[in-house]
């Protein structure tokens, strides 16, 4: 997953500054996901699922982003 983040960062560095800013949130969240993984072990099942993916960090971020958007959309409703 760290290799995937390094590739993502290197890709960002090829972009114009304005485009990099469009991806800043994703970059920070991916870094946070990696930080969490450094301090919390995955279950064997979780690890197996991630190993099947060609881009596990991107998959984890997409899943997190979906959940975050649902939480954000519903948090303002009474």
Quick one: how many beta strands? 0
Number of helices: 5
Distance between the termini: 39 Å
Helix content: over 70%
Largest sheet: none
Rg (CA only)? 14 Å
Any low-confidence stretches, pLDDT <50, length ≥5?
A: none
The helix-and-strand class reads mainly alpha
- Assess the beta-strand content as a share of residues: under 5%
Quick summary:
The chain has 5 helices and no strands. With 78 residues, it is mainly α. Helix 1 (2-12) packs antiparallel against helix 3 and helix 3 (24-39) packs across helix 5 (56-75).
Would you give an account of this structure?
The protein is mainly alpha-helical and 78 residues long. The chain is built from five helices and no strands. The chain has helices at 2-12, 17-22, 24-39, 44-51, 56-75. Helix 1 runs antiparallel to helix 3 (24-39) and helix 3 packs across helix 5 (56-75). The chain starts with a helix and ends with a helix. The mean pLDDT is 91.
Q: How do the strands and helices of this protein lay out in sequence?
A:
Layout: H1 2-12, H2 17-22, H3 24-39, H4 44-51, H5 56-75
Helix pairs in contact: 1-3, 3-5
Keywords:
mainly alpha, single chain, 0% strand, 78 residues, 5 helices
